[in-house]
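Review this:
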Amino acid sequence: MSVLEATWTSKFITTNGVKLHYVTQGEGPLMVLLHGFPEFWYSWRYQIPEFAQAYQVVAVDLRGYNESEKPKELSAYSLKELVLDVKGLIAGLGYDECVLVGHDWGGAIAWSFAYTYPQMLSKLIVLNLPHPTKFKQGFWTIDQLQKSWYIFFFQLPFFPELWLQADDYRVIGELFAKMAIDKNTFSQADLDIYKDAAAKRGALTAMVNYYRNLFPSFLTTQKTQGLLNVPTLMIWGENDLALGQELTYGTEEYVRDFQIRYIPNCSHWVQQERPELVNQYMWEFLNAEPIEE
């Protein structure tokens, strides 16, 4: 069966004052998938049917993205609000806990959620987004600042949106096509699907507003996170042009039960470029017994 013929269902839920769209498939314990920039639920198309064999998989459009509601206020895209969205989603679906999986911005939300509501997670899986303390420590190095130039550009009004939508959203397509190591990862149809999602009214500003909330609440604070007690797997595509692999080193100091899997010859778009290997590593982690206290 083609991944695009999978029997997932499109639904909506109101949580934390916003209407969120999500795609779901399967029955059982809850697995929530959080995408990154400039994606939407579609970035999990290879994981949804795979893990629906054992879970109720829910791949949500984060607020501001694709079919989800797009509040106009800049403050609506603070990390605190994004974490509350996930809390309300889990409870609204009738669960007390879930396996939480996040990539890129979804990974940042997942890390923050794990520290805020650890009792609501059975396991945590983060793809290509460093632990928040490691990110803060490594962000201000020359190498990472060069990689993160776009974060500073995104602080400007208007110009980032104009840049992203120019020439039929050319930059959106290039972010996927040019960053991928395997150039067969994204078809033109895939790129058009991402462009169409970004073209929805209000979506570009909402997507950029995530970055506009990074200062000063996240990257300029020096608070060090404590020891996380949620069993955690990190999966890292080694050829990430946006985030240096060195940001992962030492993460075990902050997570009691921690595993990391590096995938060589793979870009930031790890779960789309190497889905079979990502799925394998996820299954191995999910089926393993957690470390006893």
User: Anything to note?
Assistant: The chain has a mean pLDDT of 94.
